[in-house]
């Protein structure tokens, strides 16, 4: 993801990419050579720049973000926000205290930024089904190490699906969370009995009366290599969103569809507005961050909403680890 950020920053007017830091010296040298920038230690970097992207593994998100904010540097941190909600809340508090922008790489808000308003066409939403399923799609880099650091499919893929559902609904508050998670495929393919999940199911009830059902997996039995979709069901119909992940060109099947049924018929209609492709969304995300830094306007992903998201993730993990217990948010 750091390379995607670097490409996008270098394409923005009025933005200069100047340096990078990585604890891996060889990786840092390669990265800096590829983008024509200099390598810097963390302290030196934070003394040099106005803003940073934190694109490390999740376990270091909080420490690096807090260090940057304490140094007076604006931060775009990749997902998930942190390893727990207390860390995310501390990051939010520090950004507020310092008067700095803190936002997060919740990319699919930017993919559907121009389409979110269509949710009103379904009437009163009552259920969202969100899926990110792969036939065989474990992270290619150090699979078990990344799984452990990221928290697995639930917090790696699920974080995007949960956040997108909340965003489409106007960010209501959760009232209860129920989850189940499994690691059978990791054991089968990598021979490791790890506590980190490779597939998960999450049910979230929201205070607006809507429920969200999330199904994610690094590996499941299916024909396609990958299936990513969101369905918003409402009193007047259903909005069907195909979620682009690896597509480099736009194809007709990515257009949103509106489905309505009555006693005698069923109809589908295409929506003329299209989602952004991932590369376009990354560009929009970094432009949004830089605009927030320049103007003081809030970014598309406010840090306060990321705290709520992290709290849901925490409760989902807790539910899955405690024999699928349903957990009230205020419990």
Automatic annotation (TrEMBL):
> What are the protein's UniProt keywords?
Oxidoreductase
The record ties this protein, via SUPFAM superfamilies, to:
Glyceraldehyde-3-phosphate dehydrogenase-like, C-terminal domain, NAD(P)-binding Rossmann-fold domains
Residues forming the Gfo/Idh/MocA-like oxidoreductase N-terminal domain are 2-105
| Start and end residues of each Gfo/Idh/MocA-like oxidoreductase C-terminal domain | 123-324
Q: Name one GO molecular function term.
A: oxidoreductase activity
Lineage, top-rank taxon, reads: Bacteria
Q: Does the keyword Oxidoreductase apply?
A: yes
Q: Give any Pfam family that matches.
A: GFO_IDH_MocA_C
Could you say which protein family the record assigns here?
Belongs to the Gfo/Idh/MocA family.
Query: What's the protein called, per UniProt?
Result: Putative dehydrogenase
Species: Micromonospora olivasterospora
């Amino acid at each position: 993801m750091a390379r995607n950020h670097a490409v996008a920053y270098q394409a923005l007017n009025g933005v200069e990419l100047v340096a990078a830091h990585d604890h891996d010296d060889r990786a840092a040298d390669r990265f800096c050579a590829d983008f024509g920038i200099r390598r810097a230690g963390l302290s030196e970097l934070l003394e040099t720049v106005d803003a940073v992207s934190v694109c490390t593994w999740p376990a270091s998100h909080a420490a690096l973000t807090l260090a940057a904010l304490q140094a007076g540097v604006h931060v775009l941190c990749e997902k998930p926000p942190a390893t727990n909600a207390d860390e995310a809340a501390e990051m939010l508090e520090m950004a507020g205290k310092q008067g700095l922008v803190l936002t997060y790489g919740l990319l699919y808000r930017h993919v559907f930024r121009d389409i979110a308003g269509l949710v009103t066409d379904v009437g009163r939403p009552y259920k969202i089904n969100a899926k990110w399923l792969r036939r065989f799609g474990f992270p290619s880099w150090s699979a078990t190490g990344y799984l452990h650091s990221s928290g697995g499919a639930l917090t790696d893929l699920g974080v995007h699906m949960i956040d997108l559902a909340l965003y489409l609904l106007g960010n209501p508050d959760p009232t209860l969370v129920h989850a189940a998670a499994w690691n059978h495929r990791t054991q089968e393919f990598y021979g490791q009995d790890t506590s980190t999940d490779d597939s998960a199911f999450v049910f979230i009830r929201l205070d607006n009366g809507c429920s969200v059902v999330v199904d994610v997996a690094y590996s499941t039995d299916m024909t396609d290599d990958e299936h990513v979709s969101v369905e918003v069901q409402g009193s007047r119909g259903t909005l069907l969103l195909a979620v682009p992940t690896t597509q480099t060109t736009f194809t007709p099947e990515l257009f949103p569809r509106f489905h309505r049924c009555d006693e005698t018929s069923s109809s589908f209609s295409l929506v003329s507005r299209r989602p952004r492709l991932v590369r376009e969304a990354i560009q929009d995300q970094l432009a949004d961050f830089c605009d927030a830094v320049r103007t003081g306007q809030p970014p598309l992903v406010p840090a306060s909403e990321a705290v709520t998201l992290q709290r849901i993730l925490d409760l989902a993990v807790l539910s899955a680890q405690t024999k699928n217990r349903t957990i009230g948010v205020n419990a």
